[in-house]
Amino acid sequence: MTKDELTASHCTPRKGPGDAVPADQIGELAQLIGEWRVEREAGQLQREFRFRDFHHTMGFVNAVAYMANREDHHPDLEVGYNYCRMRWSTHDVGGLSLNDFICASKVDALVR
Ligand SMILES: C[C@H](O)[C@H](O)[C@H]1CNC2=NC(N)=NC(=O)C2=N1
């Protein structure tokens, strides 16, 4: 898969351990979202974004929220004046599903 294909993909319902990304496929997907930290043990993707001020931070957060609602897949956010720390994981899978990589890639496209 290419980065563009990942970004253009959409989330689908993924439930249960059978929908987790197999360990031997995580590396290949991780290469496509190189700015994210892939925490295999915790089963999550994490990235920190920095902004000029609160207006820019919240513009980004709102764009992410809009995308997440459309995809029905939602990040954990830690937001401050000029930063947003973001984590993606799939609760229904208990770790990483393809949905997490899709959404991380879509977020990358917002700040490109
Ligand atoms: C029914 C609905 O698809 C699920 O509750 C979705 C909503 N958003 C979600 N977001 C995340 N991050 N993980 C989930 O498992 C999840 N499940």
Known CATH architecture: 2-Layer Sandwich
Name the strands of the widest sheet in spatial order.
1-2-4-3
> Strand pairing plus helix content: what structural class?
alpha+beta
Helix count from the secondary structure assignment? 4
Q: Can you say what the CATH homologous superfamily is?
A: Transcriptional coactivator/pterin dehydratase
CATH uppermost class? Alpha Beta
Look at the structure and give the mean pLDDT: 97
Main β-sheet description: 4 strands, antiparallel
How far is it from the N-terminal to the C-terminal residue, by CA?
19 Å
Name the beta content range. 15-25%
Low-confidence stretches: none
How do the helices and strands follow one another from N- to C-terminus? HHEEHEEH
Overall, the morphology is globular
Binned, the helix content reads 40-55%
